[in-house]
Amino acid sequence: MRIGELAKRAGVSVQAIRFYERRRLIRTPRRTPAGYRIYSEKDLESVTLIKKMQRFGFKLAEIRRILQLWILPSDTGAPSPYHQGSRQCLREGLKLGQKKLQAMNEQIRSSIQIRDELEGALRQIRAALNAPLPKKAQSDSAKSPGSAAIAAS
Prior knowledge:
Layout: H1 3-10, H2 14-22, E1 30-31, E2 37-38, H3 41-55, H4 60-67, H5 87-130, H6 135-143, H7 145-152
Antiparallel strand pairs: 1-2
Helix pairs in contact: 1-3, 6-7
């Protein structure tokens, strides 16, 4: 299949496919005599996997590392160390996934803490708005009707 069909079937842009190639996330495709890139179903699987891993929050370097377990050659050009679905490959993938999940859980805990602090600050502001005016402010507002409207706003 050509690049446009791959992009359409994977739900990404043609530019994304080219970007993945430049970043070595997918293999360099074969080319027709006319120079058109030709992709396989395996390439479609790779792009779909890349999209899913990005949704999970993996960085491109992490995605490449995972793909190098069985799909891509290593950065040195060595072949993938495992066969897809092998126990070793699954163990390595599990380790990387658990590490990402742990990082996500820490981010969630941190976000909850920040949210709780913000809620506390907002409660204090609401309480201050609902508190009666101090005596001096009340006596000042009684002197001038315009100042009472300003104090109320």
